[in-house]
Amino acid sequence: MGRTKEELLARLEELKIDFKRHDHPVVLTVEDQAKHVGNFGGALTKNLLLKDKKHRLYIVSALADTKVDMKILSQRLGLGKGGVRMAPEENLRQVLQQVPLGCVTPFALFNESASAVSLLLDQGLKSKQSCYFHPLTNDVTIALSSSNLDKFLLSIGKQPAYVDLEASPVVGKDNPPDLADLVPSGAFCSSEESVENPTPKDAPQVNVPKEKTCLPEVKAKPKVQNKGAESSESKVLTNNGPNVEIFASDVLEVIFPLFLSEASKKLNIKQEELTQILKLDDFKRRAAPDLESVTNMFKNMAYTAGFHAGFDTMLKSGLGGMPSRK
To answer: What does the record list as coiled-coil region(s) (predicted)?
Structure first.
């Protein structure tokens, strides 16, 4: 069970941290938040939950107008150009516990389940008198200084790390990644793994079912006329919704044969030779993280739009038919 807003605010008061509280309707974007607190003098922030290929998680907290280039950030962490991408919603629920979509915050590290998450803070936060963050729920915003945020982080054993997120230093043989020390040592077990292995403590052979679930996907690649509805749903959908990584892999598996076919005809080269020349397997590995990141972005946008639509419908019609409480 995750920490609550009340527990967090009580901890801030216990630490004698000065903050201002602003209550408002539920908000899912920085733009929505600005409508309610934008005139109070604090600096708006954006907070991203990122994941690398080894399932290590990062929270990036930056000023709303700071440009965060994920490819550059990935290189600075020593993870290559496509090493980090937006983490799927299920990671947010599992690691940050009760923190809802649109409410990633440095205060999420208050949860024990987020102890292995790395936090990167925009150095621009230090130049502001106060900055806005959600306290584990997106119907409240609190304003506090970066020094008071540091005080909280140190109280939970997190050393604040401020970086220039807009910098683009050269990374190479003679210039090692400047943010490599911020890569967390531990990896979080994703929801896909937890679904496949529901009782890891009682079943030490957790890798066996995982291999079995992967093998049919490889064998299912031969062309079959009626593979649409049944095979696609079983592979791309999980109990937690669309599987972004499998979806991206399937898209690439469809696109590359078409590309090879057209290119080999125009260049008059056999597909096998063209595959070796272009090193398409390497290209797939590099393209997959970007495609997964874009897919995750659209998935989260769809979730947000659905939430707004449902919430508006409830306000306009649902609440009207409910009996009043006495």
So the answer is: none
Instruction: Give which of 122, 189, 104, 119 is closest to 156, Cα–Cα.
Output: 119
- Contact between 45 and 133 (Cβ < 8 Å): yes
Sheet of 131-133: strand order equals: 20-23, 140-144, 131-133
Every domain range in the chain assigned CATH 3.90.960.10: 5-182
- Please state, as a whole number, how many other Cβ atoms lie within 10 Å of the Cβ of residue 36: 15
What b/e sequence results for 71-107 when a residue is b if at least 16 CB atoms lie within 10 Å of its CB, and e otherwise?
A: bbbbbbbbbbebbbbbbbbbbbbbbbbebbebbbbbb
- Give percent above pLDDT 70 in the chain: 64
- The pTM for the full model equals 0.61
Cβ–Cβ under 8 Å, residues 20 and 9 = no
Euclidean distance between CA atoms 194 and 200, whole angstroms: 8
Query: Looking at residue 315, what DSSP letter applies?
Result: I
Q: Class assignment of domain 5-182? A: alpha beta
**80: left (phi > 0), else alpha (psi -120 to 50), else beta?**
left
Instruction: Label residue 316 by pLDDT band (50, 70, 90).
Output: low
